[in-house]
Sequence to fold (299 residues):
Amino acid sequence: MIVDALRVFVTVTEQSHFSKAAKLLNLSQPGVSLHIRNLENELGTRLLHRSSKQVRLTEAGEILYKRAKQMLLLYEETKEAIHLLQDEVTGSLQIGASFTIGEYILPKRLAEFAHQYPQVDMQVTIGNTEEIIQAVRSGTLDIGIIEGESNATDLDITPYMKDTMIIIAPPDHPLSSIRVIEPSNLNNQVWVLREGGSGTRAFSDHFIKDNALDVKRSYIFNSSQGVKEAVASGLGIAILSRWIVRKELKLGEIVELRIKHNKLEREFTIILHKDRSATMAVDIFMKSLLAANAYLTTD
Fold:
């Protein structure tokens, strides 16, 4: 279907890479290449300059890219208008979420939405906060749910819910026997951190800086699951969302280090591109998120 080929072409253009586009679209790289080749054959011209590092639009490709974005949006709006005649909400949702939200909160919300609106096709991309922001900005994602703050002026940012962060340590850590610790007790410790671009990493960096803590050594993991397992194995201490470690805390695999007079909290937010027209599916999904959570906390 031409719509599928246009969607592949737009994604390849915005990612500047076939393999990245394939990953986002859940297609094989040869499948992506076939869509592009079929488009070029149909239009009788080359659309992309290919290289080992990235792809660039040809002059013809520039023209198609702009029109393809318009056609894809019009196609979704047309599908919705037709199905509204039958009181159905249809269309597609490209949802992005940072790791904590995507792995621990979003699945339940998606199940509830899918049960109520079974005609909506949904695809979820999970990445760190910066990756989700960039994907919403480029139009690859319709809506994003991220950890922490964003000052992006081209995005509409809506508060979603509060998230409690805690400091975790292995059960045999010297600080684990202290009922309530002072921030100064965390000086010169080994920290297990997320990668740069992660909302959890930004929160950890702010905490360390605000409390003027010296870091003895740090280890970096690109997933919260990796951070959690590293702490449980005795590698060091970390800051993670309570959502992520509830099971391990209950089983005693890790312990919480409680800080005197210091509640660690951050905000989850929903982001949309200001210049992108939200489809009915996006609008209803966002309303369902806000109605279900109504600014709840993880406590």
